[in-house]
Amino acid sequence: MTLLECGSLTPFWSVELRQGTFNLGYDPEIPLGMTPSNPLALIAELTHRCPLHCVYCSNPLELQARRDELSTEAWSRVLREAASVGVLQADFTGGEPLARPDLVDLVRAARAAGLYVSLITSGMPLDEARLDALVEAGLDHIQLSFQGAREEAGNEISGTKAHAQKLRVLEWLRKRRVAVTLNFVIHRHNIDQIEEMLALAESSSTTRVEFANVQYYGWAFANREQLLPTRAQLDRSLEVLKRTEERLRGKIRVEFIAPDYYAKYPKACMGGWGRKLMLIAPNGDALPCHAARVIPSLTFENVRNCSLPEIWESSDAFQKFRGEEWMQEPCRSCDRRALDFGGCRCQALLLAGDAAATDPVCSLSPLRPKVDAILAGVNASAPTEIASRPDWLYRPNPA
Ligand code: SF4
Ligand code: FES
Fold first, then answer.
1. How remote is the CA of residue 272 from the centroid of ligand 2, in Å?
2. What is the pLDDT of residues 365-389, one digit of tens each?
3. What is the distance between the alpha carbons of residues 151 and 296, in angstroms, rounded to a whole number?
4. How far apart are CA 15 and CA 4, in angstroms?
5. Residues 6+ apart with CB under 8 A from 22
6. Whose CA is nearest to atom 2 of ligand 2?
7. Is pTM beyond 0.85 here?
8. Is 343 within 8 Å of 270 (Cβ atoms)?
9. Are 364 and 357 a contacting pair, CB within 8 Å?
10. What is the predicted pLDDT for the residue at 25?
11. Is it the case that residue 233 has pLDDT exceeding 70?
């Protein structure tokens, strides 16, 4: 499924992927202009294969084939190297990581390396015996994704009959000793279901719920105009969350990741480029973020040929947007540059055609009118029922 979250039992920090956003904020211990001493989390994209076809998938448009995936041994070495370079947490994601038959072995390898192990999953394909094997192997946390609170709409968005299986997995998790996060990817067609989503969470063993508005990369970028909520929808959802705050306090931690097209300033994507996170693609390419392939000037080292510490410290891709030398105005002289690092490099490429530009969602960007024009179009029409949707561009499965 999409991305990651550290669980509430042993949280280091909050990381959200998927959709591909990493909202870690500014860590004052890592000065902006310096190479961080070590990455904190390794995002292991085990495969691009997935039984779901979500219209907002953050995987690249060019998916990698099964034959190109790293072997069990190669992943195990990568996990050991990650621990040796200071990584604390392994986040198994995809595609759908459960599509890897060796997932239990990989969880065991991550745990043996001393890592906190998190699984970001749609819950398909899974049965109780495999869930037990994963927990026994050392799984610390599961982030289970839902496409919504209602079956029909959820199945429509994922292009698969998946909702009933997710409810089954949620029930199984009630009896397992593993931290659970429920992840709802929020968009125009389910943002009005937030109360129902909260009710689902309250009826389960989860202690953390994440409402992650779609971030517009990959397949979501292609379906953007059909996914962006209206301003009125966004305001209503925030009112709902405010109303429930008191009731849920001390029971369920709720996080809402706003659609940054509506924000005044951009997110600190990935907690800053090459500062805290490494992503390993299914074929072993090491990326600073899940969408980095959209930036044509970047080349990526591969863990088959290069060690993780070498890649982290000196690969061109990780160096490219570290520090602030690369920044243009208005970021270069902006006093928020150590807070948001100029926003998202991939979004800058997609919206401005220049990965070094100020993220156009920033209100100080000269290109902000472009984002406002997109929102004006989205707000000009009322949200439609899922049944009357125009055709989605569904994510296919790789070979
Ligand atoms: Fe952030 Fe750049 Fe906007 Fe300043 S101008 S708020 S640094 S994106
Ligand atoms: Fe934000 Fe790539 S997704 S930097």
1. 9
2. 999 999 999 999 999 987 765 556 6
3. 39
4. 6
5. 3, 15, 16, 267, 268, 269, 270, 271, 276, 277, 289
6. 346
7. yes
8. no
9. no
10. 32
11. yes
Query: Ligand 2 centroid vs 360 CA: distance in angstroms?
Result: 13
Long-range contacts of 191-194 (CB under 8 A, 24+ apart): 191/229, 191/233, 191/234, 191/236, 191/237, 192/233, 192/236, 192/237, 192/383, 193/148, 193/149, 193/150, 193/153, 194/237, 194/240, 194/241
Q: Which helix (H) or strand (E) holds 43?
A: strand 41-45
Q: HSE of 90 in the Cβ direction (CA atoms, 13 Å)?
A: 32
Residues 6+ apart with CB under 8 A from 107: 92, 117, 119, 134, 137, 138, 139
Per the model's pLDDT, the better-predicted residue between 147 and 295 turns out to be 295
Residue nearest to atom 1 of ligand 2 (CA): 344
State the distance from the centre of ligand 1 to the C-alpha of 118, rounded, in angstroms.
Answer: 32
Each residue of 161-198: pLDDT tens digit? 889 999 999 999 999 999 999 999 999 989 999 999 99
> What does the angle CA 18 – CA 278 – CA 299 come to, to the nearest 5 degrees?
100
CA 343, 349, 355, 359 dihedral sign is negative
* Cα of 81 from ligand 2 centre, angstroms: 24
> If you take atom 1 of ligand 1, which residue's CA is the nearest one?
342
**Cα separation of 259 and 194, whole Å?**
15
User: What's the token pair of residue 30?
Assistant: 């890592």
Question: Which two three-digit tokens encode residue 125?
Answer: 């394909």
Q: Using CA atoms, how far apart are residues 180 and 188, in angstroms rounded to an integer? A: 26
**What does the alpha-carbon distance between residue 344 and residue 357 come to, in Å, rounded to a whole number?**
9
Atom of ligand 1 nearest to the CA of 334: 4
Strands 277-280 and 41-45: parallel
